[in-house]
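User: Look at the shape:
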Amino acid sequence: MAPWALLSPGVLVRTGHTVLTWGITLVLFLHDTELRRWEEQGEPLLPLTFLLLVLGSLLLYLAVSLMDPGYVDMQPQPQQPLRTRHCQECRRCVRRYDHHCPWMENCVGERNHPLFVAYLALQLVVLLWALNLAWSGLRFFQPWGQWLRSSGLLCATFLLLCLFAMVAGLLLASHLYLVASNTTTWEFMASHRIAYLRQRASNPFDRGLIRNLARFFCGWPSGSWETLWAEEEEQEEGSCQAV
């Protein structure tokens, strides 16, 4: 492996995320927050639980960013499957393409989209708890210079956590909406440019909330997107003939 391969964008992004995650966690432990007070009082359960949640969110992040999102092997089958899109960044075609995530340096597609949603949910829980912990350590009734030395870094961490929590919350809400309607980010944003959606008044893959969630998280009912498309076509033709 060439030396510069170790400095690829993916390695840099994932390393940055890992360092930032543990750096924020360290700040919360070093300042006079509830985490530190629990530890000093000999109550390790809550600090340990927080650390396990942080570790879990980091492992989910790495799993989503490193796994195959659903790349299509174009050799035996030259035709592009339905709901597949070619990613310019990855230079591969991805099944049920949702989007390319720059924070993970990987596509979100058919295989890793459920884990991506689970990661967002767990990350939001960790961020909200971390926000509460950071707030518990802020002391405002101090001279400016003393406050800046004792709480400046913790305040900057709190503001950073606010930003991350808002982003994670918005992303989770939007993806839950898309999952509930069996739509991808790409299909939602560019339906007017997608051939199999351009002429449709409704989403041909929507089978109701329960079936959409079951298909997304559990892979049930099984079947190709082409099959769902054909079923929708038959239903529309039947409706037209009935009229």
Notes: DSSP finds nine helices and four strands in the chain.
